[in-house]
UniProtKB/TrEMBL annotation:
Identification of the protein by name: Endo-chitosanase
InterPro entries found in the cross-reference section: Chitosanase_fungal
Family as reported in the entry's similarity comment: Belongs to the glycosyl hydrolase 75 family.
Organism expressing this protein natively: Paraphaeosphaeria sporulosa
Catalytic activity: Endohydrolysis of beta-(1->4)-linkages between D-glucosamine residues in a partly acetylated chitosan
Keywords attached to this entry: Carbohydrate metabolism, Glycosidase, Hydrolase, Polysaccharide degradation, Secreted, Signal
Function per UniProt: Chitosanase catalyzing the endo-type cleavage of chitosan, the deacylated form of chitin. Chitosanase may be crucial in the degradation of the deacetylated portion of chitin in the fungal cell wall.
Biological processes annotated in GO: polysaccharide catabolic process
EC main group: hydrolase
Length: 260
């Protein structure tokens, strides 16, 4: 007979694995191996290729996602910026910074409960590329808010490891590299890969789907959560409503259009 403690652990593990709804699963499969029909940025870098990733817009929902210019989506490199910098499995991160891009908003939305996002607790995704001369090549940048109405700290649906995990848009890349996420989110996606600040998930099979508009902003969520599971669970009400807007229709393969 299974003990009460063992059953509780089992149920907690099951709860952490959110099933991908059929419409989102169909979207993932239909767009995975075709060209982006509506690229809204120049080609940026996955970190494994110099110019292999664009920001792609789904016209039906207005959602934006990272798309490999051949097959697949994005990888999951680890962003250790913010309150968790240099601690735990981020102790080996060679490039951590002491704050995230929206630190002031985090303090506002949390009512001062936290000072900044913590990569060990807060599921967040890095979107947008400043492409500065110091960190990139000084070329065209991509601003999710100005270019696609994606609001800071809005909910992002992440399809990874055959599950759905929710996070927020929490940081911006200064250079050209794409596909970064907090350690907590990456570990929920790929718990058996030994991820750390210097070891990410390299396959281009992660769909980051960010939604436009005020309704996607994660204002009244559990910013003061003590665990990644608690924080992720608090995003579900907003996330589930957004995901329902995703059409399951089939994408048509098109030649990638250049974006000037």
């Amino acid at each position: 007979m299974r003990s009460t403690a063992s059953l509780a652990i089992l149920l907690a593990g099951v709860a952490a694995c959110r099933e991908v709804p059929s419409n989102l699963k169909s979207f993932y499969e239909s767009h995975k191996d075709v060209d982006c029909a509506n690229p809204i940025s120049i080609e940026y870098s996955s970190g494994q290729g110099d110019a292999d990733t664009v920001y792609c817009k789904d016209d039906a929902s207005g959602a934006v996602f990272l798309k490999d210019t051949s097959n697949g989506y994005a990888d999951a490199d680890i962003d250790c910026d913010g309150a968790g910098m240099g601690t735990g499995d981020c102790g080996d991160d060679p490039s951590g910074q002491s704050m995230t891009a929206f630190k002031d908003l985090v303090q506002e939305y949390s009512g001062g409960a936290i000072d900044d996002l913590n990569t060990h607790i807060h599921n967040f995704v890095v979107l947008g590329n400043d492409n500065s001369a110091d960190e990139g090549d000084g070329g065209a940048s991509f601003d999710p808010t100005n270019d696609a109405d994606i609001q800071p700290l809005s909910v992002v649906a992440v399809v990874c490891g055959e599950k759905l995990v929710y996070g927020v848009w929490g940081d911006v890349n200064g250079g050209k590299v794409t596909g970064e996420t907090s350690l907590s989110l990456a570990k929920q996606c790929f718990p058996d890969e030994g991820l750390s600040g210097n070891a990410g998930h390299g396959d281009h099979d992660v769909l980051y789907l960010a939604f436009p508009g005020e309704e996607a902003i994660a204002k009244d969520v559990n910013w003061g959560a003590s665990s990644a599971k608690e924080f992720e669970a608090s995003l579900a009400t907003i996330g589930d409503a957004l995901v329902k807007k995703v059409a399951a229709g089939q994408a048509k393969s098109r030649v990638m259009r250049a974006v000037l």
